[in-house]
Amino acid sequence: MNNRPTWQERPTLFGLTLKGFTLTVIVLVMIYPIYVVILTSLSTASAVTAAGGLVTLPTDLSLDAYRELFGGGVVTRAVLVSTGVTLVGTTVSLGLTILAAYGLSRTNSLFHRPLLFLFLLTFLFTPGMIPTYLMVRELGLIDSYWSLILPSAISAFNLVVMRAFFMNIPGEVIDSARIDGAGDFRILGRIVLPMSKGVTAVIGLFYAVGYWNAFFNAVLYINDNSKWPLQLILRQYVQQGMDLVPNTRTYDSAAGALPPNLAIKMAIIVVALIPVLIIYPFVQKHFTKGVIIGAVKG
Fold this sequence. Notes:
The protein is an all-alpha fold. The chain has a domain at 72-236: Orthogonal Bundle (MetI-like fold). Helix content is 65%, strand content 0%. It is built from 14 helices and no strands. The chain has helices at residues 13-41, 45-51, 64-71, 74-105, 112-121, 129-138, 156-167, 171-179, 184-192, 197-213, 216-221, 230-239, 261-283, 287-297. Helix 1 (13-41) packs across helix 13 (261-283) and helix 3 crosses helix 13 (261-283). The longest helix is centred in the first third of the chain and has 32 residues, at 74-105.
């Protein structure tokens, strides 16, 4: 059965070929850097030396870089910190965003317009780094994991998208629930959220990726390097060229040589990429329904 609109012409062979070639090139451009990073992280010192840096062709593969990486304890602890901050932060942010978006989507709610104006005002004006740091310090959150969560707990953009989606839910459904005696929290939990799984999954992914990739709050508020998240470790030891493992390393592989620092740095990047690469395919199907509908119709 042909579902093509009558006004839309059939694609030509040249057009299909050009589209396929273009998509293939884009995919290769996106995958090639990841391939090089993974391959370099699995290469031995001799392979890295022979390649003169990043390895593009597999020659001598080894897991020594990952053994060295997780054997020192620094990266293992940083992964646990980032995982905890991401899980707790996403839960807090998603919960606050849902509550605020639902309240602001009800036009007859108390202080609806002033509160909405305050949220929208953050699109134009931000408090700045110094006032935010002073507030965090006065709250006693320096060197606390909460300093990585609370300053960015709610995103105004995510709130506006979710509010727009909630406003598209038919009012008759909510009114019928009120007639049956349901309160706001019951309506939110039993009716609104089940109808908003797509946008909730997308906003949750936005928050999770944001917390997982964040490092600047740790630079400002975390002085204890035992509480550094993975992204700050990545910045310190990859971007600034610092040695991840001290010179007193005792690890000895079967070849009798330590893995090169470049392989260890690439291994850190791989560890930082894995969670996003795993989670994204499961949430990708919700993007069109969750974000596009909520943003356009709102």
